[in-house]
Every structure is written in structure tokens, then in C-alpha cells.
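Look over this entry.
=====
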Amino acid sequence: MGELQRYITAFSDIVSDAPAASCADVCFFKVALRSVPSATTLETLIRERGPGEHSANIFDHHEHGYVELGAWLGSQKLALQLMGMGALTGPVAVAHAEDSPWRQGHSRAR
């Protein structure tokens, strides 16, 4: 397990029953923070991980799904947790959430 994967696991948790304001709903489950991670550290670890074998540049303002991110991280569960962490801390928007910053700042053809 790489440093980014360890960071995701250390700072996020999957929850079934939590107030909406304290978690991110990533469709399959809700993600809550165990403690407040550093948005800067999370972004640094994502950038250090680089695209590798899979070209998942999640800062390119394009939509990236959990399947693509799961291939990049080696786990779709961790991909969803990363999406939830990012939505809660800032570096990554959950693209499917209607009220996400990604949806508010970008438009796309349906």
C-alpha cells in the first residue's frame, strides 16, 4: 500500500448513519473524516503519486469516475473514499453530486 492509500485509510471512514453536513455521500456509501486531514498534504500526495500506468490526472478539470481512480489507486473503495475526502477538504470535487463545486463551476453536454 502506497503513502496516498495509507493517508486515505488513516483519515477517512465509511459510515452508514451520519449527519449530511459531516460526510460526503459517494452513492455507494458515505465517507466521514476520522480527523481533519491537511488539504495541502492530500493534494501533494495525489500529485506525487502521478498518473503512473493509468492516466488519472484528477486536477485537469475533467470528470474522473471511481472505476478510473480505482484502477489508479488499486481499489475502487479507496477511490470512493478519496472522492469523499476531497469533497470534504477541498482538493477534489465529487463530480456526480449535483451541488458539488465541479458542477457549479463547469458545464458539460449530457
Remarks:
- The longest helix spans residues 76-89.
- Confidence is low (pLDDT under 50) at residues 93-110.
- The radius of gyration is 13 Å.
- The CA atoms of residues 93 and 99 lie 10 Å apart.
